[in-house]
Amino acid sequence: MNVVVDLNRCQGYAQCAFLAPEVFTMHGEEALLYHPVVPDGQLERVRRAVAACPVQAILMGEEAGAGAR
Amino acid sequence: MRGEVRDGRIVIVGASLAGLRAAETLREKGFTGSLTLVGEEPQPPYDRPPLSKQVLLGRVPADRTGLPRRRDVEAQWRLGVRATGLDPIGKRVLLADGEEVPFDRLLIATGTRARPWPNPAEAALDGVFTLRTSDEARRLAERLDAGPRRVLVIGAGFTGSEIASACRERGLAVTVAERGPAPLVGALGGTLGALAAKLQRAHGVDLRCGVTVTALEGDGRLTGAQFSDGTHIDADVAVVALGAIRNTEWLAESGLAAGPRGVTCDAGCRAFDMYGIVTDDVFAAGDIARFPHPLFEYQLLSLEHWGNAVAQAEVAAHNMVNPGPRRLPHLTVPAFWSSQFGLNIKSVGVPTFSDQVVIAQGSLKDARLVAVYGYRGRVTAAVSVNQARSLAYYQRLIETAAPFPPAPGAADQIESPVPVPSDVPDPKLLSHGPTVALTGHMPDRRLTVVQPAR
Ligand SMILES: Cc1cc2nc3c(=O)[nH]c(=O)nc-3n(C[C@H](O)[C@H](O)[C@H](O)COP(=O)(O)OP(=O)(O)OC[C@H]3O[C@@H](n4cnc5c(N)ncnc54)[C@H](O)[C@@H]3O)c2cc1C
Ligand code: SF4
After folding, report:
1. Does the C-beta of A3 come closer than 6 Å to ligand 2?
2. A44 touches chain B (CB under 8 A)
3. Distance between terminal CA atoms of chain B?
4. What digits encode the pLDDT tens for the residues A7-66?
5. What is the pTM assigned to this prediction?
């Protein structure tokens, strides 16, 4: 599973970084960095982060066009 | 009518952010016909903003920024093959491998590529890079891992500044060369440009403004660079961050209004032909598109912004499967983010569409502020530095053409409540291209060129 964060929408509330710190981390006070590919053991945590993001900025899904290579 | 627009053959050329989001939206809106995505790059759609951030910092490998999908798009993917031409009468896209793909409706989403170093022999030196694709990011990240003695970044727009920031965070020595008076000045004007310059120097960047790189030197491998002021540096890596070139060459014979500034389209993403006549079956979205925006006097806007690619692709897809009266305009307020030197920079509106700027909240001294931009007495943009949560408020001011300067915020004390000139330089003064270009009504063909009054 992959994630992408709409950083225009993201308000830096850091809920995601709290819930899934291996995938989402704050960089400086406000900027969010994330791992686009979710490690297997982190899926449940990331699902919770997606649900908890107050502005619904995180999109999680299968990698697009993965079968297309 | 309904059946007619919801089926048939749709081809999308450009299988990146805009192409993917359009494909998903087409299916969401009930398109049941055949869908083909053509992409020059061999890998499925991936996200570019992390390339100059997470990837250069060494936190994420370059080939692991793949975009998630919202839903299955049930498409034929033609990846690793370039579209070389468009036959608008026969309604076919011509591919580099000799194949032809017929369409009923076409979406052009071919984006941009990095502007190369103008001297091909120097550009070919080992150690000279550009950064637009994941492949380029992989090679550059590998070179940064190897610990070069000095990195030269040519061009201090957003990409160049982010690269410099990543290098400093890795502890590498960096020189940044910018023809203009300050980093980011082309996008954000003089006040924030001066702040960016101060920050870069405080983070140990050897920042040189008002100079150009006149030669990259080396014999097979890059060894150094010569500057227009007569100085010279040793460097074993150079990153050319001179802005982007729009991928419109394949449309040269198509009769569309397509040129170096992009593909001109209407607010509904329908492409114009070279005579300014709107087509009904060819659409454009993302970095490639130039479209009129009512908030900026209907000037044509080209944006190199992630959020625009997403929003415009969704509008284009909607309009491709809806009859005229149900079509939607793409009127999103432009928005952009960047992170560099520990700061979160966000922008709404078009800061270059301004004559004045005021620090409406916070202060330059603390590098925590909102700068609000005005044009002839109305608010046209706002940029936050580590103060992103205030931006939604200013976006509403932009949308409603609220008077500039805005009334002072109640909570925050203000450093300089007095508007100053926004000092947006002529883009010709910059090394890099602007990430927002207001290009007026000037379709890019001789027949229709209107010289703007100067
Ligand atoms: C390093 C970097 C950092 C960025 N950071 C930010 C940021 O922080 N914030 C922000 O808002 N934006 C940022 N952006 C900009 C953002 O990534 C773009 O706005 C976005 O990618 C545009 O999407 P697009 O689909 O329109 O075009 P592109 O992503 O350029 O995709 C176009 C695709 O079309 C393909 N193509 C081109 N020509 C052909 C052809 N003839 N035939 C077939 N395929 C073709 C290309 O290979 C490419 O895959 C950044 C961009 C880069 C490069
Ligand atoms: S929870 Fe949402 S708003 Fe908060 S930092 Fe994460 S993505 Fe941004």
Report:
1. no
2. no
3. 48
4. 999 999 899 999 999 999 999 999 999 999 999 999 999 999 999 999 999 999 999 988
5. 0.95
